[in-house]
Design goal:
By secondary structure, the protein is mostly helical. The chain has helices at 22-65, 81-87, 90-122, 128-140, 143-154, 160-167, 182-207, 211-219, 224-235, 237-251, 256-262, 274-284, 288-317; strands at 68-71, 74-77.
Length: 318
């Protein structure tokens, strides 16, 4: 008898996770991943396009304009002449002094006050939602409405602040008309208008601190100030550092409050800031080259400060 012939059989497809053929499952998984990645990349491309159009393009355009000048409708390269014009302008140094003064005062009021308010709100156990709304309400108001409110408060004739000083038998002040008090008045208004967001961020950070740390501090005999210094501040150091950086960058670009409250320059130029000087170059003097050059100086300064701050923060963490 002859040996039986063995006929090779085709290997059956290995089952996938759902019991079906593995090829179909792989194909469906690939289609799902492709569809998910396409939608994700679609949203990402849209964000990149918007960011490029509204952020990167103006910066590149500003860099180009800083080295150009336009006369009689013709644009030519100006080299460093725009920067020379800016540096030789006496208003340039006055604007920087005022901007640094505003930044320093804003750090005293706009950085410390929201943190103190957040500490107070964190101690409330009832009505905290209403208090958060009350603190954040000025941020939701239009800036013009807030400015009109503070113009009424600062009015030298019938303003509420002078009425309170009169009741206290104190001398009345020319808040926005006096060069000595104009910048301080603007800082107080700006702090009230913008402190709500920072307060809520600090409050969220405070509520994330474990209560056991405060209990251990109390067992060690720590009082309120020691608990804040040794528990609260170290636990919120990252948020405080980030908010400090954002506060400095924002206050160095202040424009709205001095422009609406004091007319921009203020008495004897006491509220002229760098950004307002850029506005004057561009829209009052029609000198877009000098405006772009001054904006470039501000951009380089803030970028250098941010880079140095980040580097020091990393070195401190290490």
């Amino acid at each position: 008898m002859s040996a039986p012939t063995l006929i090779p059989r085709k290997a059956a497809p290995r089952p996938g996770r759902d019991g079906g053929p593995r090829t179909n499952a792989s194909r469906e998984a690939f289609v799902r991943a492709l569809r998910r990645n396409l939608s994700a990349h679609g949203f990402l491309i849209g964000a990149v396009v918007c960011f490029s159009f509204f952020s990167w393009y103006p910066m590149v355009r500003e860099f180009i304009l800083a080295f150009q000048k336009t006369e009689n409708g013709q644009t030519t390269w100006a080299g460093w002449s725009n920067l020379t014009t800016v540096f030789n302008d006496p208003a340039f140094w006055q604007a920087w002094r005022n901007t640094l003064l505003f930044t320093g005062l804003a750090l005293v009021f706009g950085f410390i006050v929201p943190f103190v308010v957040a500490l107070v709100l964190n101690e409330f156990r009832h009505g905290q939602g209403f208090l958060r709304l009350l603190v954040y309400l000025p941020v939701m108001l239009p800036p013009v409405a807030s400015v009109l409110l503070f113009k009424y408060l600062y009015d030298p004739g019938y303003g509420l602040l002078n009425r309170l000083l009169e009741l206290a038998h104190l001398p009345q002040q020319q808040w926005l008309q006096d060069p000595d008090t104009a910048m301080l008045s603007v800082v107080i208004a700006a702090t009230w208008m913008n402190m709500g967001g920072a307060t809520l961020i600090y409050l969220a950070a405070l509520q994330g601190i474990p209560g056991e740390l405060y209990e251990a501090a109390e067992l060690d005999g720590a009082g309120l100030l020691r608990k804040i210094w040794y528990v609260t501040i170290p636990q919120t150091r990252l948020i405080l550092s980030l908010m400090l950086l954002m506060q400095i960058i924002a206050t160095m670009q202040v424009f709205t409050e001095p422009f609406l409250l004091a007319g921009g320059a203020g008495p004897e130029g006491s509220t002229t800031t760098v950004v307002y000087l850029i506005y004057q170059y561009a829209f009052n003097f029609n000198n877009y080259g000098s405006a772009a050059a001054l904006g470039l100086v501000l951009l380089v300064l803030l970028a250098g400060f941010s880079a140095a701050y980040v580097r020091l923060s990393r070195a401190e963490d290490e």
